[in-house]
From TrEMBL:
UniProt cross-references to Pfam families, sorted A to Z: ChapFlgA (PF13144), ChapFlgA_N (PF17656)
Lineage: Bacteria, Pseudomonadati, Pseudomonadota, Gammaproteobacteria, Chromatiales
Transmembrane segments: none
GO BP terms: bacterial-type flagellum assembly
NCBIfam families in UniProt: flgA_cterm
Alphabetized InterPro entries for the sequence: Flagellar_FlgA, FlgA_N, SAF_FlgA
Domain called Flagella basal body P-ring formation protein FlgA SAF: residue spans: 124-251
Entry keyword set: Signal
FlgA N-terminal domain segment(s): 46-118
UniProt protein name: Flagella basal body P-ring formation protein FlgA
The keyword Metal-binding is annotated on this UniProt entry: no
Length: 253
């Protein structure tokens, strides 16, 4: 009789435990399993797009190295269903420490700015002698020197973007006095003045299919394509014209 009672007590406790277990299972919320990770934009793909863009933007890819700064792993961006758009961020240079803007248009638009470091080993142009402000850039002034351009290059940081292809800049004027041995960079140069104050100029007047020309005097300096005031010698009138080439301006009506 006692053994039977013990069995009954054990059975009752087991049923209560089973009931509690079932109740707990019913109360536990069920969360759906999602493919959230698969819907995120790959950070490696963003870095790859940046690297390709920066490399393609270099005037020469010889010796170019691009190190993309690792993106924060906590960044959650929607998977882009089209190729990523890449641009230089406003104010970014193309060598040294650079910043690239990466955008996605759909399905959920987003934009990030990715920092990178670009270095390049190659030749730059160095002045063989000092020049004065207003002197014109001439091939005889330059010698080649091999350097490593990048964020750690003091000359690049202090002087600005170096000129690697000198041909388009020949004939430009120096905007400042520069000593011998300095690396040639874009900040040093400006378009040379074709017209100088007091120069005798030929004024061309083009209006309604008519082309006339007369003599005049320039009242200020002007580079190619820039506006300049000139005085018509015949009439004494002052007119606004555009510097066309050395000694020639055109009045457009």
């Amino acid at each position: 009789m006692l053994a039977h009672q013990k069995c009954m007590n054990i059975l009752i406790k087991w049923k209560r435990a089973k009931f509690c277990l079932i109740l707990c299972l019913l109360l536990i919320p069920v969360f759906p399993v999602t493919a959230e990770t698969g819907d995120r934009q790959s950070l490696d793909a963003i870095a790859h797009a940046v690297r390709e863009f920066v490399t393609a933007e270099q005037t020469s890819t010889d010796g170019v190295q691009v190190e993309v700064k690792a993106l924060d792993n906590r960044l959650r961006l929607a998977q882009c269903d089209a190729p990523l758009d890449t641009y230089w961020s406003p104010g970014s240079r193309s060598i040294g420490r650079v910043t690239v803007q990466v955008e996605c248009a759909s399905p959920k638009p987003w934009r990030v700015h990715v920092q990178s470091t670009v270095t390049q080993e190659g030749y730059v142009w160095v002045l063989s002698r000092g020049v004065q402000r207003g002197d014109l850039l001439d091939p005889d002034l330059l010698v080649k020197q091999i350097v490593k351009l990048g964020a750690s290059n003091a000359a690049l940081n202090s002087l600005g973007t170096p000129i690697l292809d000198v041909k388009p800049w020949l004939g430009y004027a120096f905007s400042q006095r520069v000593g011998a041995g300095k690396m040639l960079n874009e900040r040093m140069l400006k378009p040379a003045n074709l017209i100088k104050k007091g120069d005798a100029v030929l004024i061309r007047i083009e209006s309604a299919g008519l082309k006339l020309q007369t003599k005049g005097v320039a009242l200020k300096d002007a580079a190619a394509g820039k506006f300049v005031q000139v005085r018509n010698i015949a009439s004494g009138r002052v007119v606004d014209a555009v510097a066309l080439r050395k000694g020639v301006v055109v009045v457009l009506n």
